[in-house]
Design goal:
This protein folds into 2 domains: about 50 residues; about 40 residues, no CATH class. It is an all-alpha fold and about 120 residues long. The radius of gyration is 32 Å and the shape is flat. It has 3 helices and no strands.
Length: about 120
């Protein structure tokens, strides 16, 4: 008996079917693992004590009155929505120092002249 194109196509379809079945079994195993882990996490979250609310740090700038910071924060929250202000800096400190540091770092990699 000779191996014909029809036999090759049949074998390819059988292999393709086996791959599909194995893939579905792996997907089911992964889904089962995810379900078990999510149930375990829900149980731990239910048993865990409630975390205290985070305390906002005090403003670092001493020159601006607290009332002004509250008004600025309220205006920004109204315009942008729920965002957090991480840091308020005085206007004399800009990004020049970071640009200078980057330039110094990048020029340190420049190839040197002949020795």
């Amino acid at each position: 008996m000779t191996y014909t194109t029809l036999n090759a196509v049949r074998d390819i379809l059988i292999i393709y079917g086996i791959v599909i079945v194995v893939s579905m079994l792996v997907a089911l195993v992964i889904r089962g693992i995810v379900m078990v882990l999510s149930r375990h996490a829900e149980k731990e979250a239910a048993n865990a004590p409630a975390k205290p609310a985070p305390v906002a740090p005090a403003p670092m700038i001493t020159g601006i009155p607290h009332e002004h910071l509250a008004v600025i924060t309220a205006a920004i929250a109204t315009m942008l929505g729920s965002h957090r202000i991480i840091r308020i800096e005085t206007p004399e400190r800009g990004f020049g120092w970071t640009a200078e540091a980057r330039t110094t770092h990048h020029t340190s990699h420049a190839p040197r002249g002949s020795h």
